[in-house]
Amino acid sequence: MFFLTEYGLFLAKTLTWLGAVVVIIVTVASAARARRESSQGHLEIRHVNQRLSELADALNDELLSPAEQKKAAAARKKQDKQLEKAAKNPHAAVKNRVFVLDFDGDIQASAVSALREEISSVLQVARETDEVVLRLESGGGLVHAYGLAASQLLRLRERRLKLTVTIDKVAASGGYMMACVGDHILAAPFSIVGSIGVVAQLPNFNRLLRKHDIDVELHTAGDFKRTLTVFGENTDSGRAKFREEIEETHTLFKRFVLQNRPVLDIGKVATGEHWFGSQALGLKLIDRILTSDDYLLEKASEAEVYEIRYRRPRPLSERLSQQLTRLLLAGRRQLRPSKLDLL
């Protein structure tokens, strides 16, 4: 009995060590793979027509009688056969395609890294009759970042692909810089549109530092290498130059908007104000009051609609952090079984 007990303990220790070694090997391999794939990514393509049909079928299953369900299934089968027959006919008219892209913008326009890959993919396969729909949500951000995002959309215009921009919530400032590139702009009634202006601010701690006898030295070559600073003493000439740069940026912003949307009264809309969608229509900032959902329903009746997403693998550290967060939340729910969890 003593021998069996010792043997069992030895076996348990051995399996534990082997398990630990396997975990380390898998972790290292995953990290190496993540590093290799971090710059590659892949496209995800979803057929919107099929998704909409599945949603309708699921609802019909609950609403229709057995006889009506049978009739609907027969009609669907007949339609599928017609589509299959048309696809095999080389002389049949080719159905138009709509490629749906999403841009959810932050202050740095981080989503532009995926947008540029999606647009490059579409440009390689698109036909003249195809259309790109951009579902845009952004309150703006850095000038150079949103300038690049708008330039990506100009690639579509330069290839004469129809670009429709939809705004369900907000496209302001840099977001509208992107939206104005579209051939048509659609917006929900209470979406926020406009804010064609430039803002810049920074704190200055110079007086506080001097009060505590702290000196800050800043050396530059060039009178305006630095205009306003956080720690140094700001001058009137520096302030004037800073305001001049803001005005120049605003002028470039207005010029870009007017070039892409010449119907605007730029003096009236480029005041930095924003408007709701219903108001923006009267100012010609948009072309139609309509949500992205309704527009895609319209297009699905006449074209094949595809959602295109470019995904990059998440780093191992991010995946582990997310898993740890889930475990911690699960532990909290076990310790405090409440119907409402507050973070």
Automatic annotation (TrEMBL):
Region (Disordered): 70-89
Transmembrane segments: 15-32
Domain Peptidase S49: 157-305
InterPro entries: ClpP/crotonase-like_dom_sf, Peptidase_S49, Peptidase_S49_N_proteobac, S49_SppA_C
Residue stretches making up the Peptidase S49 N-terminal proteobacteria domain: 3-153
GO molecular function, one term: serine-type endopeptidase activity
PANTHER family in alphabetical order: PEPTIDASE S49 (PTHR42987), PROTEASE SOHB-RELATED (PTHR42987:SF4)
Full protein name: Protease SohB
Species of origin: Hydrocarboniphaga effusa AP103
